Amino acid sequence: MHDIKLIRDNRDGFVAALARRGAAFDGRSPDQVAGDILDLDAKWRAAKASFEQHRARQNEASRTIGQAKAKKDEAAAKALMDEVAHLKAAIQEDEVLERKLDEELRKALSVLPNLPAEDVPVGADENFNKEVPARRWDEPPEFDFKPKEHFELGEALGMMDFERAAKVSGARFVFLKGALAKLERALGAFMLDLQTAKFDDEKLGGYTEIVPPLMVRDSTMFGTGQLPKFEEELFATDSGNLARKALQEVAYSKSISVSVKPELEALITKLGYAWLIPTAEVPLTNLVREEILEEDKLPMRLTAWTPCFRAEAGAAGKDTRGMIRQHQFSKVELVSITTPEQSGAEHERMTDCAQEVLKRLGLAHRVVTLCTGDLGFAARKTYDIEVWLPGQERFREISSCSNCGDFQARRMNARYRPKDGKGTRFVHTLNGSGLAVGRTLIAILENYQDKDGNIEIPEALQPYMGMKKIEKR
């Protein structure tokens, strides 16, 4: 969410930053978007000012009624009582209009993406992403045979079954069996152990492990930016969503009395959990929603290994074979809550933590800075870590580490109290994959295969697996 005061005070800067995003805004230019928002803001402030003026006059007139009656000036008292009644009706109208405009303004702001950091490269799509040479690690392995893709290896091992999964659940699901099921479990445990470990130099690890809920409310999805813009990417858990939407529309309609609105909002809340999480970023980041933290408790570092659920809307025809793009997958998530002064360094540290997993598994990879046109909705700067997949003969994303600044914090109302104790400030939030477990499994299959289709187990995983090689039966 954007700070409306900053848009008022620096419209030109806001427009320029929004233009760097290169996103479409229903056919409007960034300047028109800013104009529409500031028009709504002006109307909202006018309605609020009218409400406050009428309320002040009502209070003054109410006090004066007693004085008139004390003087037995019944005419003056009646005129004042009539005025108070008129003001009461005007105040109700003002209140309805102010709430309506406030909601419209919030909705207009809620669908706008975060503004990119100044050092983010400008570009329309992934072709303009920039590699960070200093972060490239190792070279892709060479084979004396043509390496296979992960699904060819998994099916040949008899441990990866897409056909039966399609019968049970539909497309983009898989059954993992035997040693591959164990490999997924081993990877998740290995990643968690690494990220929660205490290191002497404190440059890695130190995350607190969390087991979060897998179902969250609308407000939680809103907090991290999944709603309202990306509803089609999410899985709803119950048919109550239809009722919830209908009630929300009624709650903000012009015809509803202000006195009824709280009851409708309470009913919406009672409809319960609505969404399966697309990533553990959602519950982990919202852990601090509507809270005020003490500065000496920051940075707060959290990690979780959870299933993730994504509808993959718009992904038709992309990665239709194999496990690259699934509706259900597991991931170890990293989340940091920091001060604005810490967030830049914390972003670099988080990326180091994610890379360390690949280094210990001996997997060649590179890091790219996403350009403005490829940034996620809530991110102001993102590093993508891409692992080498021999079967595809290219690098593929295995982690995104993003600094969201105060964008999510404003949506969650998550703040901290500075050490000097003067007021509160919004925290900065960061998130990253440490790593996507399924894609790491894919990378191991393709990088550690032999010509017979057997899979060597990376040394770091052997204690978790109790074996050195996965062999064909």
Overview of this structure, please?
With 473 residues, this protein is α+β, with helices and mostly antiparallel strands. The protein folds into three domains: 4-110, Serine-tRNA synthetase, tRNA binding domain (Helix Hairpins, Orthogonal Bundle); 126-226 and 276-470, Bira Bifunctional Protein, Domain 2 (BirA Bifunctional Protein, domain 2), CATH 3.30.930; 238-272, no CATH class. The chain has 15 helices and 18 strands. The protein is elongated. It starts with a helix and ends with a strand. The model has no long low-confidence stretch (mean pLDDT 92).
Q: Could you outline the blueprint of secondary structure elements for this entry?
A:
Elements lengths: L3 H6 L1 H11 L8 H41 L3 H37 L19 E2 L18 H8 L2 E2 H8 L5 E2 L1 H19 L11 E2 L5 E2 L1 H7 L10 E2 L3 H12 L9 H10 L4 E2 L4 H5 L6 E3 L5 E10 L18 E11 L4 H18 L4 E5 L11 E9 L4 E10 L3 H6 L2 E3 L7 E2 L1 E9 H11 L7 E2 L5 H4 L3 E2 L3
Parallel strand pairs: 4-9, 8-14
Antiparallel strand pairs: 1-11, 2-3, 5-7, 6-7, 9-10, 10-16, 11-12, 12-13, 13-16, 14-15, 17-18
Which characteristics define this entry?
473 residues; Helix Hairpins; BirA Bifunctional Protein, domain 2; 3-stranded antiparallel β-sheet; 15 helices; 18 strands; elongated
Q: How many β-strands, per DSSP?
A: 18
CATH architecture of the largest domain: 2-Layer Sandwich
Question: How big is the Rg?
Answer: 27 Å
Low-pLDDT windows of residues: none
Quaternary assembly = single chain
Strand content: 15-25%
- Largest beta-sheet characterization: 8 strands, mixed
Superfamily (CATH H level) name of the largest domain: Bira Bifunctional Protein, Domain 2
The helix-and-strand class reads alpha+beta
The coarse silhouette is elongated
Strand order of the largest sheet: 1-11-12-13-16-10-9-4
